[in-house]
């Protein structure tokens, strides 16, 4: 996109202060105002940040989370609060929700009907009552998913709801006794390709009849993962591409779902997705997807968690959107500090600003335990716990919407800063996210090209922050013609403004 050259350079001074120390695991409605502490900047580094309005990159489709584990989510007495914390205006403002094509639905192959919830049971049933308690575990999960997806759409008008498939129904697999992909267990292509495609299409049609029209659907989840014990299905690139073109796309079209997008291939490691998709027939794939976990070589060495150095895909994507459909710290060690927060910030920054992804979806929205696989956790006393990863997610999701494009932001190497910038061309609104992953405070001088900035709002998260995204006083340009901001170590800061 073109933009006018700046007639002058505008400036601002960001006064950085830390909020009084408070427990980060209290719920937002339990947190009051906080006193401000002056930040003492010993060992301060200096650097320069450049923002160029005229250099535009990918459009952002949004940010989201998976609506599960489904049954604990549905049964949680805090479920309404959790919905607000994830998709509501006082929370993360997520605009995406990932569901699951469960493999346990009743399926009438003759009529192509998939039954997505038990008959004669309201989704608003009392989960402590006899009716609900009389359901099977599978029926509870079916009912719970309908509730989560439907309430998100009704309450928050979540525009992008999509679903991924972990495994086909077991009777369609080569080894029907094996729920996982171990021993390369997957769909029996010779007998069940048509049936599975109709099952996925029937699932999508049933949800449409419930008022939930999926934006997209994925026939696989981590198709290369033959090591794990959970529900999974092995696919080769050739077979997955053939299935999408020859079976799934036609089945969706036959059910009147011509506009539903197909997402693929959702490999566990970002680099593996690059290799997998590069050799796959993608002619009927609308959205290319991978997960943000460490690479296979790291897993072999015993490493887990968020990929801290994802690589740019080397094949031509054909201008198709690229999504991260799952990422979290699955190392098994709970960390609710900025150490964990910076890991997520690094992963998000590099995937958005270096790998040019259009959307980022976290793994779990909530868990009934404390675990970094989830944005919201639950303490032993039933209260909700918010690790710093929750706050970090909000630094992107709250002020970068699906009408924003990334534009050029650069910073001197060696400063410890990572900077990305996003703009809404129609309104001139922009958002800048600055991550200081280092151990020193950094004083940054700004250089704007192609635009001027007036008053700016900002919020910041450190290990000492209380509450979530407490805004500082509005910032305006100073009289010196220079602009600078001080970023404390191990912090993330979001700046928002409007092009003048």
From TrEMBL:
Pfam families noted in UniProt: Glyco_hydro_30
InterPro entries membership: GH (IPR017853), Glyco_hydro_30 (IPR001139), Glyco_hydro_30_TIM-barrel (IPR033453), Glyco_hydro_b (IPR013780)
Cross-referenced SUPFAM superfamilies: (Trans)glycosidases, Glycosyl hydrolase domain
GO molecular function: glucosylceramidase activity
GO cellular component: membrane
Keyword Signal: yes
UniProt-recorded name of the protein: Glycosyl hydrolase
Organism of derivation: Sinomicrobium weinanense
């Amino acid at each position: 996109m073109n933009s006018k050259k700046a007639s002058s350079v505008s400036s601002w001074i960001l006064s950085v202060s830390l909020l009084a120390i408070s427990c980060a695991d209290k719920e937002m409605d339990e947190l009051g105002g906080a006193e401000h502490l002056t930040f003492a900047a010993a060992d301060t580094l200096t650097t320069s940040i450049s923002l160029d309005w005229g250099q535009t990159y990918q459009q952002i489709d949004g940010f989201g989370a998976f609506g599960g584990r489904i049954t604990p989510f549905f049964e949680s007495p805090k479920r309404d609060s959790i919905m607000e914390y994830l998709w509501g205006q006082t929370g993360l403002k997520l605009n995406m929700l990932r569901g699951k094509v469960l493999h346990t639905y009743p399926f009438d192959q003759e009529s192509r009907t998939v039954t997505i919830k038990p008959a004669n049971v309201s989704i608003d049933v009392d989960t402590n009552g006899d009716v609900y308690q009389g359901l099977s575990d599978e029926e509870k999960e079916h009912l719970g998913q309908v509730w989560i997806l439907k309430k998100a759409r009704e309450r928050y008008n979540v525009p992008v709801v999509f679903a991924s498939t972990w495994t086909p129904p077991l009777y369609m697999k080569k080894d029907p006794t094996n729920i996982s992909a171990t021993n390369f267990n997957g769909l029996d292509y010779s007998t069940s390709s048509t049936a599975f495609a109709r099952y996925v299409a029937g699932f999508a049609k049933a949800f449409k009849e419930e008022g939930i029209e999926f934006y997209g659907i994925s026939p696989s989840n981590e198709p290369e993962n033959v090591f794990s014990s959970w529900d999974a299905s092995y696919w080769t690139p050739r077979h997955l591409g053939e299935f999408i073109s020859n079976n799934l796309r036609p089945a969706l079209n036959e059910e009147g779902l011509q506009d539903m997008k197909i997402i693929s291939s959702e490999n566990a490691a970002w680099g593996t997705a690059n290799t997998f998709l590069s050799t796959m027939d993608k002619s009927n794939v609308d959205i290319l997807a991978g997960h943000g976990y460490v690479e296979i070589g790291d897993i072999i060495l015993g490493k887990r968690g968020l990929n801290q150095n994802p690589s740019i895909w080397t094949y031509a994507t054909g201008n198709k959107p690229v999504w991260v459909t799952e990422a979290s710290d699955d190392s098994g060690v709970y960390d609710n500090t900025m150490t964990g927060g910076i890991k997520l910030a690094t992963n998000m920054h590099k995937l958005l600003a270096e790998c040019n992804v259009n959307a980022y979806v976290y793994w779990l929205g909530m868990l009934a335990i404390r675990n970094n696989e989830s944005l919201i956790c639950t303490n032993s006393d039933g209260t909700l716990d918010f690790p710093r990863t929750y706050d970090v997610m909000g630094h992107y999701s709250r002020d970068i919407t699906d009408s924003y494009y990334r534009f050029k932001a650069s910073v001197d190497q060696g400063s410890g800063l990572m900077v990305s910038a996003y703009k809404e061309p129609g309104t001139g609104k922009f958002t800048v996210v600055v991550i200081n992953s280092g151990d020193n405070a950094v004083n940054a001088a700004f250089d704007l090209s192609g635009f001027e900035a007036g008053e700016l709002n900002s919020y910041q998260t450190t290990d000492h922050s209380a509450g979530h995204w407490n805004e500082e006083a509005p910032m305006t340009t100073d009289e010196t013609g220079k602009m600078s901001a001080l970023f404390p170590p191990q912090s993330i800061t979001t700046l928002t403004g409007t092009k003048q």
